[in-house]
Write a structure and sequence with these properties.
Elements: H1 2-12, E1 33-36, E2 40-42, E3 49-56, E4 64-73, E5 81-84, E6 91-96, E7 102-109, E8 120-128, E9 134-135, E10 140-144, E11 152-155, E12 166-171, E13 176-181, E14 187-190, E15 197-199, E16 206-209, H2 220-223, E17 268-271, E18 274-276, E19 289-292, E20 295-303, E21 306-312, E22 320-324, E23 332-336, E24 341-343, E25 354-363, E26 367-377, E27 384-389, E28 420-421, E29 430-431, E30 435-440, E31 446-455, E32 461-470
Parallel strand pairs: 1-9, 2-10
Antiparallel strand pairs: 1-3, 3-7, 4-6, 4-8, 5-7, 8-10, 11-32, 12-13, 12-25, 14-15, 14-23, 16-17, 17-20, 18-19, 20-21, 21-22, 23-24, 25-26, 27-30, 28-29, 30-31, 31-32
C-alpha cells in the first residue's frame, strides 16, 4: 500500500526538497529512505513471536540489505531471544528485493522477564547497501519483554480490499493484529455469566423466533411468509428486531437469553446472510456480498454451564446437536455451520480494542442496513471512544488535559463509520480529514487516533490505515 507507506515515512522524517532545472523539469532523484514502521514493540506473557517491519520512502531501486545493530538490557541472544535472520554477533542483516516497499525480520521471545525487572532489546538501523540511501525518522526500535503500552504507532489493517474478506482485531498497546475470515463463523456463544448467543452481522445474518419448540416439526411452508421480513436492508423499521442490538449490548441479542427451562427456548428461523463477495467492483466501490447462504432452523438449550445447539436445514425432519462449552478468557465461543465445529475468531477478551469489519447497523426509521469500512470497539472489555472535530482542537495539539471523560460512549459504534464520508449519488465515500478519535483501551490507557487512508494509491477501497498516540 504505497500511500500508507509514504504517509508513515512523512511522519517519521522530512523529505528532501526538490529543485528544478532552468526548463522547469524536475531533475532531483528520489531519495531512498529506510525507517522502522514503529518505534516500540512489546510482548505479553502469551506472545512469543512478532514481525518487525521496516518501511521505505519509495520502492527499492535494486536488491539490497539493511544492517541492524542491537543492544540489550537483561537479555542475551539465544537464551532470551533470537531473530530471523540470525543476529548472534550483535547485528543482523535483513534482505530486500528491488521494487519492494519494505522488509521485515522476526523477533522470537524465548524467556519472559522476571517479575519486577526490565528486559529490553534496542535495535538501530546501522547501514543500507543502496548507494546514497538515508536513515531517518524511526531509526531505533525498543522491544520490551514486559507488557507496556505502545507510546505511538501506525498500522494498516489488511481487511481484504473491496471485498473486505476479513475482520481485523487490533490491540493498540501492543500494536498487535488478529485476522479472521468474515464468513468463518455463524453464531457466537457468550462465555460470561449470562447465556446469550450472537449472530454474524458482518455477513448480514438475521433471525426470528418461531412459536414452535419442536425443531423437527418446522417446515418450509411454516416460515414461507416470514422469510422476506427476516433480512437486512429491507428498509422496514421493524426488521431491526431480527438482528443484534447495534450498540453491542448483550441484552439486545436477536436470540433471547437462553433459559434453563427447555420449554421457554423456541425454534429460530435463521437467515444465513451472504457469502463474501468475489466480484471486482468499480474503483472506489465495494462488493462485500456474494450469493445468499440460505436458511437454517435452530434451537438452543442449556445443560448446566454448557449450551446445546440443535440445527437443521428447513426441510429436514431430524436435526444435528452439538454441546458448546464456555471458554474462560474469551468473550465468545464461535460456531460454524459450514465446518460444524467451533472456530477461532476473536483474540482473548482483553487483547483487542477495535475491530475493522463489515457491520449491520441501523438507519433510524428504516431498520437494519449493511455498512462497509466499519470499526467497532470492544465494549464488553470497557473499551470506549468518542469523536473530536479538528475545528475544536487540532490532532497534534490534543493532549491528556483535553480528554473529556463524559464523552466516552458505551456503544461499540464510538468510531463506527464516522471516520469516513458516506458518499451518495454520484459521489464515492472518502476519508474525513476534519475529525479524529479518543479511545480508552482495555487497560485504561487513553489514545488519540487519526485515520490516514481509506483506499490504496489507485483509489481501491478496503485499504484503511491510521496512526495513534498514547495520551
Amino acid at each position: 500500500m504505497k500511500n500508507y507507506v509514504l504517509y508513515v515515512l512523512s511522519l517519521a522524517f522530512l523529505f528532501v526538497g526538490s529543485s528544478c532545472s532552468d526548463d522547469g523539469e524536475d531533475t532531483t532523484p528520489i531519495e531512498f529512505v529506510v525507517a522502522f514502521q514503529n518505534p516500540s514493540l512489546s510482548f505479553d506473557t502469551v506472545d512469543t513471536e512478532k514481525e518487525v517491519n521496516l518501511v521505505f520512502s519509495t520502492t527499492a531501486p535494486e536488491d539490497g540489505t539493511v544492517t541492524i545493530s542491537y543492544t540489550t538490557v537483561n537479555a542475551e541472544y539465544s537464551t532470551d531471544f533470537t531473530t530471523a535472520p540470525a543476529g548472534t554477533s550483535g547485528e543482523l542483516t535483513v534482505s530486500f528485493t528491488g521494487g519492494s516497499t519494505g522488509t521485515s525480520f522476526t523477533f522470537n521471545k524465548l524467556l519472559d522477564a522476571i517479575e519486577g525487572t526490565t528486559k529490553t532489546v534496542n535495535f538501530t538501523i546501522a547501514a543500507i547497501s543502496v548507494v546514497d540511501a538515508t536513515i531517518q525518522g524511526n531509526t531505533q526500535l525498543a522491544v520490551s519483554f514486559t507488557e507496556t503500552a505502545a507510546p505511538e504507532g501506525t498500522t494498516a489493517p489488511e481487511v481484504g480490499g473491496p471485498n473486505q474478506d476479513d475482520q481485523v482485531y487490533v490491540d493498540l498497546s501492543s500494536i498487535t493484529e488478529t485476522t479472521a475470515k468474515r464468513d468463518s463463523w455463524d453464531l457466537g456463544f457468550y462465555n460470561g455469566e449470562a447465556f446469550r448467543v450472537t449472530i454474524n452481522g458482518s455477513i448480514f445474518m438475521a433471525v426470528s423466533a418461531l412459536e414452535s419448540t419442536d425443531i423437527d416439526a418446522v417446515t418450509p411452508t411454516d416460515v414461507e411468509a416470514l422469510q422476506p421480513q427476516v433480512a437486512v436492508g429491507t428498509f422496514d423499521a421493524a426488521n431491526i428486531a431480527f438482528v443484534d442490538h447495534v450498540t453491542g449490548s448483550l441484552e439486545g441479542t436477536a436470540i433471547a437469553a437462553i433459559s434453563e427451562t427447555d420449554a421457554d427456548n423456541p425454534v429460530y428461523l435463521v437467515n444465513l446472510g451472504f457469502e463474501v463477495g468475489t466480484e471486482e467492483p468499480e474503483v472506489g466501490a465495494v462488493a462485500v456480498s456474494g450469493d445468499p447462504r440460505g436458511w437454517k432452523k435452530i434451537r438452543i438449550l442449556r445443560n448446566g454451564d454448557d449450551y446445546v445447539l440443535q440445527y437443521a436445514d428447513l426441510d429436514a425432519t431430524t436435526h444435528e446437536e452439538v454441546t458448546i462449552s464456555k471458554t474462560s478468557g474469551y468473550h465468545f465461543t464461535f460456531f460454524s455451520f459450514d465446518t460444524e465445529e467451533t472456530v477461532d475468531v476473536q483474540p482473548a477478551a482483553d487483547r483487542w480494542d477495535i475491530n475493522f469489519t463489515v457491520f449491520t447497523n441501523e438507519i433510524e426509521g428504516f431498520g437494519s442496513y449493511g455498512y462497509s469500512d466499519f470499526i467497532t470497539t470492544n465494549i464488553l472489555s470497557s473499551v470506549s471512544a468518542y469523536q473530536v472535530e479538528t475545528a475544536t482542537t487540532a490532532y497534534a495539539d490534543f493532549g491528556l488535559a483535553d480528554v473529556d471523560e463524559a464523552l466516552f460512549l458505551d456503544d461499540q459504534r464510538g468510531i463506527g463509520s464516522n471516520w469516513r464520508n458516506g458518499g451518495g449519488p454520484g459521489m464515492l465515500p472518502s476519508l474525513k480529514d476534519d475529525v479524529f478519535f479518543v479511545l480508552k483501551d482495555t487497560d485504561g490507557n487513553i489514545y488519540k487516533i487519526r485515520f490516514t487512508a481509506l483506499t490504496n494509491e489507485s483509489g481501491v477501497r478496503g485499504y484503511p490505515a491510521f496512526e495513534f498516540a498514547l495520551l
